[in-house]
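Crash report, auto-generated. Payload:
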Amino acid sequence: MRRSYLGEFEEVVLLTVAVLGEGAYGVAITDELDRQTGRSVSISAVHAALHRLEEKGMLTSRLGEATAERGGRRKRLFAVTVLGSRTLHDIRAMRERLWDSIAPQSLPAVSL
Amino acid sequence: MKANPPFLAERLLAWFCAPHLLEEVQGDLHERYLRDLDRFGAGRAGRRYWVNVLSFIRPFALKRRPADFPTPSLFHPVMLRNYLKTSFRSLTKHKVSTLINLFGLTLGILACLGIYLITDYELSFDTFHPDRERIYRLVGEGQFGAKGEKQKFGFPPNAVPAALRKEISGLETVAAFHNFETDVLIPDGTEKPKRFESRRHGVDNAELVIADPEFFSIFSYEWRAGNPKTALREPYQVVLSERKAHKYFGDLAPEQMLGKEVIYLDSVRVRVAGIVKDRDRPTDFTFTDFISSATLRASPHMKWINLDEWDDIWSSTQAFVKLPAGTDPAQLTKPFQDFSRRHFRQEFKFVPALQPLSDLHFDADYMDNYSRKAHLPTLYAMMAVALFILLIAAVNFINLATAQSVYRAREIGVRKVFGSSRKGLVAQFMSETAMLTFGAMVVAMALVGPVLSAFRSLIPAGLTYDLFSLKTIGFLAVVLIATSLLAGLYPSWVVSSYRPALSLKGHSVVMGGQKGFLRKGLIVFQFTISLIFIIGTLLVGRQMSFMRNKDLGFSTDAVVSVDVGRAGKTELVAERFRKLAGVDRVTKEWFPPMGESFMMTKLKYRGKREIEMDVSAKVGDENYIPLYGLRLQAGRAIMKSDTFSEMVINRTYAGMLGFRKPADALGKLVEWQGKYYPIVGVVADFHEQSFHEKIGPAFIAHMPRNERNLGVRLATKGRPMSEVKATLAAMEEQWNQVHPDTKFNYRFLDDSIARLYEKETKTSRLVSTATGIAILISCMGLFGLATFTAEQRTKEIGVRKVLGASVASIVALLSKDFLKLVGLALLIASPVAWWAMDKWLQDFIYRIDIEWWVFVLAGVLACGIALLTVSFQSLRAALTNPVNSLRSE
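Recovered output after restart:
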């Protein structure tokens, strides 16, 4: 199986879109990332990532309704495509396989 | 609260961000801005907005997505073809305005092209000589007597060039030449040699010079035959130009012409030592016969040019200097002054100076008798006039195009709906303008030849031009582009601004008040220029007629001046003329009272104190005063006598000598060249030079030696013109009996006085031509606008008529607006014209006053012309049956 390569940031953005569901658009995604990962990302970085993901076919987008708080401009709402979903699952499966293969006590203990 | 992010940042974003991403990005940033505003306040939020915007400068945001329906490039061949096709259609649809514009632009470009060709020709004079920046003419400042006025001379005393060559080291080459005129004889083996008449002064170019051999080291020529090193070294040698040589000897090869004999001044026999190629570029050095200057010393017939003369100065003497490379002419000022101090110890002082070759054609201060001076201010004035005419034509275009754009609103609407961009529309309109301008240019190029020859009196003689030279083409290209931009940019911008939604619904898109102002402003501008020209024409015309009609102090009626000059036998000719029936009176004279030639000499009077001054000498016999009708105020005219024994002075001189009444001067003695002569009469002042000069002191005396020429008054009272012709023919017959070899040279005094005003006559013709063109173009523009207004208001006029308006009131309604504009133009034009004309008139000592009614007359004329133009259209509109105009909806 050929897998599309995703960068780490792209993966996180893709996951965030999935987390947000219906209301996934630029600012919301940025805020969610901020909250979940604790790192401050710029809107432009998020936009760039979304753009790339859409080009790779992992996301689709449509324009939402105009809202007053954005100066009458519409939001672009993103949703994860089947390809995106499969990619996420693949990555997850791969990671889990890897976790499963780790011998007990071979990782130094970390208290969470 | 309504808060907006920083405006500039928004603009920046909108500019760089790809359109398909712009909305979401703007929205997101806006949303973020509002949050920041809430949290941190306006300042920090603004800064963060800026940072966010700048961080979007990355490839994905910059990259444009190809449109689904791409607009072809504005310069795609398909688009170009489309522009041409639609331009052609719209030009042929609006025939009247197309013709008006074409005509106006043609005139404008024609004027520009013609004047460009003239200017280019004048500026190209003597620009082809190698090392021309090192060539200078030897000129100087001279002064007769310690109290005399310092004068600029374009020529040095005869002895100066050779002395400079010897004494001043910093001059590389010095060459002198003397020009002269004579008939030329070519012996051809028969009894009577072939004779070539001398040039007509003021008509033909100067051709004969006696030149130093160095002349050919300063000005290089292409030699057809002979050796440039040795030609002109010996006495009795001549170098001819190729064309002149062929004229003398027919179709001989240049080598065969060497050694042939040419006779100048009837007895100076010289041999051809060289043949040079004629100049084919504009030059003031039009000489064709170069006689070796060694001949001057050798020939007894050439003694009249005295090479050792220090104390007098002749306009026929010329000297040129070539400085070594890198020499600054200013370095020579000091040596020249020392030179002057060494050599000029007597009455006459002369300080040499250098005039750059490039000034020779333009600087009229340094006169000579062969070069034709171009008057730079006149050239500049002509350029300005041409530019204004083109400007008026462009204004016409702007006015008509914006006015007509209403008709095109629908077309624009449809085009925009189909996706035409504003740039595309501008390009389309510009191409229309360019096409029209190009058409005008082609017509102008075809017409410029005939037009230039029609205005021959205004243009420099010998004008040559090449319409297809790179320079001319370049100039035309600049004119084409500038005119197209000037005329087309504004209309196309206006037209392309229409909103399709409005124009397609049939809403009137007539410009609001602001744009109307522009159109009115342009009309005012046009009429201001036209009015300035009109006022100029009126005032120049009045000054000209003042000069023609003012009492000159003597009579010029039917007076013919006969140029006897060196031919001699003046008395015999005079006797024969006197016997003719049609001749009233004949005087032997030097020059007539007024004309280009005059002579100043020093007179001394010892009254209470000694008064010595330059006085103009009018030389003639006892017939001089009665023939010219000079009015005696006291005493009597000169009596018949064999020698100079008495004189008559003019009123000004009498006043300068301190006589309060003319009669007081009678019997007083005046000293001239050491002898005393009594004053026997005083005449009223008369003009002897143009009206630019003040009447100065003058005296009339009989000096038989100088009375070489004749003044003849024809009896014209009650006789038809044909008899005058018959008399002139009879005079010529008598002349030919006395002088079979010389031509009968005569000129009406009126004509020679008119020659004094050649420049003014040119100015007058130029101004009146410009006026005519300016008025014509402006009126055509006005006509076009009136047509348009009348059409626009058809319905209104219909309604007005139905409600009982009279034809007169409607015509008034339509004309009133235009008249107001002309009135305003008059207000602007008057002070400008007054200022310009006042400056022009300052040049005249005797001049008209600028009177207020001239301005009123100009205004009335302009109003009349405008009214006439407009009324044709407004009358037609007013006479239309309202049924026709109101029926169709």
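Post-recovery validation: The first helix of chain B runs from residue 7 to 16.
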